[in-house]
Amino acid sequence: MSSKLIQSPSMAAASRGTNAKMLLSFTNLNRNTMSFTENPFRLRPMFIGKVTEQSSASSPNQQQEEEDETDDITVSQIKEDLYEALKGINRGIFGVNSDKKTEIEHLVKLLECRNPTPEPTGELDKIGGCWKLIYSTITVLGSKRTKLGLRTFVSLGDLLQQIDIAQGKMVHVLKFDVRGLNLHDGEFRIVASFKITSKSSVEITYESSTIVPDQLMNIFRKNLNLLLGIFNPEGQFEMSYLDEDLQVGRDGKGNVFVLERTEKP
Predict the structure, then answer these.
(1) CA nearest 89: which of 100, 79, 78, 77?
(2) Partner residues linked to 212 by β-bridges
(3) Cβ of 202: how many Cβ atoms within 10 Å?
(4) Which domains can be identified in the chain, with CATH numbers?
(5) Nearest CA among 188, 195, 193, 191 for reference residue 205
(6) Is residue 242 a contact partner of residue 117, using CB atoms and an 8 Å limit?
(7) Beta-carbon neighbour count of residue 160 at 10 Å?
(8) How confident is the model at residue 223 (pLDDT cuts 50, 70, 90)?
(9) Between 62 and 83, residue with greater pLDDT
């Protein structure tokens, strides 16, 4: 038994020769002398191959499961989740964290994929009336917020959109709550006209703007252009989702707007 464990001189020499050949191969990178076919201890990448096959095989199944779960979500559930996600962020006007923004954008896209009114400009009766902004990716941050005095004695109220289909007009009304100057509220009105440019979009043209009362106008006079630059609806606007009580739209700059129908004048 022990004699089988002892190498003969020729076998030992051959083994030393093989090891020497392998050392030379690794120390001299410019020479390709080692051949796995000549080496009795060949390496077979079987484990790596199996892992790759398992990973590639499970990935499509996982994607399909995610798509099936998404398809099962109803519009009512998406809207419920969206309203929940919008709680406590003040319409996003003063910014939201990236996770929250991603969550909202995901829900908005799910709604857009289930749009019951793919050609809204052909059903204008669904568009007319008063809408209230509940979310927008337009933000008032940093110096803009400071210049508008929105950190001290002026706060934003509702932002309403009144659409008159017969006249081809829309009025954006931004409400303010003012502390001091014996004022309790005021508003910034932007009047615009619109014309249909496609089955789902309109072109909005600015016409005029006013701030009432006069004391509020005196506060914003120096920064009126800044106020218009933020809240003026002028430009291309596409309605990507529309039902009886909810509207989603995108302007030409890629900003997202979510509005709900309201009875407020």
Answers:
(1) 100
(2) 187
(3) 23
(4) 9-69 (no CATH), 76-261 (2.40.128.280)
(5) 193
(6) yes
(7) 20
(8) confident
(9) 83
Rounded CA gap, 185 and 142, in Å?
24
What pLDDT is recorded for position 265?
A: 58
pLDDT digits 0-9 by tens, 158-199 = 999 999 999 999 999 999 887 766 666 889 999 999 999 999
> In which residue are the tokens 């606007």 written?
237
What distance in Å separates the CA atoms of residue 257 and residue 75, rounded to the nearest whole number?
18
Torsion (CA) 117, 123, 129, 135 in degrees, nearest 10: 30
- Please state whether beta strands 201-212 and 129-136 pair in parallel, antiparallel, or not at all (unpaired): unpaired
**Contact between 256 and 108 (Cβ < 8 Å):** yes
| The predicted structure's pLDDT at residue 239 | 97
Query: Helix 75-85 vs helix 98-112: angle between axes, to the nearest 10 degrees?
Result: 160
The helix/strand/coil state of 62 is helix
For the question of whether the overall pTM of this predicted structure is more than 0.90, the answer is: no
Place of tokens 């990448």: 45
